[in-house]
Write a structure and sequence with these properties.
136 residues, mainly alpha
Length: 136
């Protein structure tokens, strides 16, 4: 049974890694669409650690798609800020309510699976959203 818990924790961590990576790629695509890939990566590298994590520096640089960026950025921040409380909740349920821990795992893994599917559909098979393409 303990191996199943380890597997469930590992699966959650890996799904979080995929979701956050895809969310960051989508947000960076907005900047790539305004500039180009090389300049976007240079601008990203010049930011402070906090700005690189939060990705909020992109919004002032956008001329188009600001509304879409705000929605995706808010979703990204919600995902980011909910990570620590989420894992604290799981550990507390694991310790104090072991009879319902699998339901908690199921809910969190279901949400992460939906987010993974959402970002996969947004980014497409090339892992490049429509926001990264130059429109004339």
């Amino acid at each position: 049974m303990e191996k199943l818990f380890i597997l469930a924790y590992f699966l959650m961590i890996m799904m979080d890694k995929v979701v956050i990576s895809d969310a960051r790629r989508l947000l960076l695509d907005f900047l790539i669409g305004e500039r180009n890939r090389k300049n976007a990566k240079r601008i990203h590298a010049e930011q402070s650690f906090s700005d690189r994590v939060k990705m909020g520096y992109i919004l002032p640089m956008l001329k188009k798609y600001t509304g879409a960026f705000r929605k995706y950025h808010i979703l990204y921040l919600i995902i980011l800020y909910s990570l620590i409380p989420q894992y604290i909740t799981i550990v507390l349920f694991h310790i104090f309510a072991p009879s319902v821990i699998w339901y908690v795992f199921g809910v969190f893994l279901g949400i992460k699976l939906l987010l993974t599917i959402f970002y996969t559909l947004e980014l497409g098979p090339q892992k490049m959203s429509v926001y990264a393409q130059k429109k004339k």
